Write the structure tokens for this entry.
Amino acid sequence: MNNDLKFKCLVLDHDDTVVNSTATIHYPAFLAYIEETHKNIQVDLEDYFSYNFEPGVIGMFRDIYGLNEQEMVEEEDFWREYVKDHIPLAYPGIPEILWDYKKRGGLIAVVSHSYSDYIRRDYAYNKLPEPDIVFGWDLEPEKRKPDPFALYEIEKKFHLCPEEMLVLDDLKPGYDMARSAGVPFAAAGWANDVAVIETFMRKNCDFYFKTVREFGDFIK
């Protein structure tokens, strides 16, 4: 392990942190779903980002858009089928940052609300370094973000202390997860310009990066 690294392990969110996926895939998938099933639901992209931030994806579908439990299962199935044929692109600069970090001896963990098989597919498609460990939506619900389960597992597997890791995420569930485990948190601010998200992140996070380049300069 390179002792010059600021953090021995980057714990990366996936969607809107490493890959540009909400605006290009997840939001269009939801629009396609409601066009078929709930034409009464109205949603724009900024709202979709905001509700993903808080109350989070489950709260958004259940409490904001009023889907019942069966409809939420159907929406998830629809989304999974949609994503099979739609691969998000990594943000420009992300591949170079992650490859440099790996070559310097850093560990890459992914903790995401996407499925693990799609995450690994996206990394391969975008020619990113293979993650050392992945925790996705296929975890039991009680172990997903914002629960800190994944962070504790990463600590145990790689013999790390909380301060040796950095969580990089664009949404509040990642922030809440990091805070619960005492792990430093950096906000990825490059996916959107939603004021309520940026205001919260700038006020509360250990680090805030508006651009990929700012993050890359920091992690060198």
In short: The longest strand covers residues 107-111.
